[in-house]
Amino acid sequence: MRSGAPNIMRRIKGESSHWINQNVEPEKKFAWQEGYGIFSVSEENIKKVRAYIYNQEEHHRSMSYVEEIKKLR
Length: 73
Fold this sequence. Notes:
This protein has 73 residues and is an all-alpha fold. 59% of the residues lie in helices and 0% in strands. The chain has two domains: 1-38, no CATH class; 40-73, no CATH class.
């Protein structure tokens, strides 16, 4: 069995998209975008990260995901 982040992400994305397609919106086809990002977060920033995730849809109305990743580099 292969290991490492790419294989873990492939499994997570595959299993989760299968579950979503079977249980959430079977009439629609859900698929993850290509690629992935992995970030670590210090314990003191967990509340900020939770707030970001919760408001992500609103946040990305003003800045695309690609623009945000480029800004982080």
